[in-house]
Specification:
The complex is a heterodimer of chains A (119) and B (114). By secondary structure, chain A is mainly β. Helices cover 0% and strands 51% of the residues of chain A. Chain A has no helices and 13 strands. In chain A, strands 2, 4, 5, 6, 9, 12 and 13 form a seven-stranded mixed β-sheet that branches. Chain A has a four-stranded antiparallel β-sheet with strand order 1-3-8-7, with no helix packed on it. A two-stranded antiparallel ribbon of chain A has the order 10-11. Chain B contains no helices and eleven strands. In chain B, the strands form two sheets. In chain B, strands 2, 4, 5, 9, 10 and 11 form a six-stranded mixed β-sheet that branches. Chain B has a five-stranded antiparallel β-sheet with strand order 1-3-8-7-6, with no helix packed on it. The N and C termini of chain B lie far apart (41 Å). Classes of the chains: A mainly beta (119), B mainly beta (114). At the A-B interface, strand 4, strand 5, strand 9 and strand 12 of A face strand 5, strand 9 and strand 10 of B.
Chain lengths: 119, 114
């Protein structure tokens, strides 16, 4: 039990629709990262939020966007869904320190994930 | 860029020892993580190495050589429940703000047989 919770656990959407996935970070953690994991692959970094701002982004198009709230919870939004967006979406919680998030610990915990199927 | 390689599949016998290797080439390095992932579940944190050497935690040990870009995860006294995918991930450090993202390998699927 990591203390990182995600919702919903499973959902089915139609191509072209929009989806919002939610994540609550572990108590004491201030940073949330989102990853996409296709079947049989390792997770791929989408973006990271620290102090309510995007703190880094992977190779994903702008239709993938996010938010972080004052309580450090986060949302991942995906617009104009495509069939290839079908995957497990993982939220990872961690703690960064400093004005630029430059100091970090060794604990990065994942939530149970949200399974998205696009048909 | 980041490149992480690990074997796709391994098979071992219950009670035995298995070593899962991971090699990496990264533009920045801020630690190496190992995760266990059972089918249909989220990755579970196993170990973290940032300095060269061996970290031991019960039946699991992880080794890091930064000069060689190499790590391994050692599992002792294998149990059937150890059948899972094992993910090697490197945390990067990029730009003035530090991205601190994890780059994962594709995972090693370990099958433990009776």
């Amino acid at each position: 039990e990591t203390g990182v919770t995600q919702s919903p656990t499973h959902l089915i959407k139609t191509r072209g629709q929009q989806v919002t996935l939610r994540c609550s970070s572990q108590s004491g953690h201030n940073t949330v990262s989102w990853y996409q994991q296709a079947l049989g692959q390792g997770p791929q970094f989408i973006f990271q939020y620290y102090r309510e701002e995007e703190n880094g982004r992977g190779n994903f198009p702008p239709r993938f966007s996010g938010l972080q709230f004052p309580n450090y919870s986060s949302e991942l939004n995906v617009n104009a869904l495509e069939l290839d967006d079908s995957a497990l979406y993982l939220c990872a919680s961690s703690f960064l320190r400093g004005a630029a998030g430059s100091l970090s610990g060794n604990t990065i915990y994942f939530g149970e994930g949200s399974w998205l199927t696009v048909v | 860029g980041q490149n992480i390689d690990q074997p796709t599949e391994m098979t071992a016998t219950e009670g035995a020892i298995v070593q899962i290797n991971c090699t990496y080439q990264t533009s920045g390095f801020n630690g190496l993580f190992w995760y266990q992932q059972h089918a249909g579940e989220a990755p579970t944190f196993l170990s973290y190495n940032v300095l060269d050497g061996l970290e031991e935690k019960g039946r699991f040990s992880s080794f890091l050589s930064r000069s060689k870009g190499y790590s391994y995860l050692l599992l002792k006294e294998l149990q059937m429940k150890d059948s899972a995918s094992y993910l090697c991930a490197v945390r990067d450090q990029r730009g003035p703000t530090g991205r601190r993202a994890l780059t994962f390998g594709s995972g090693t699927r370990l099958q433990v047989q009776p």
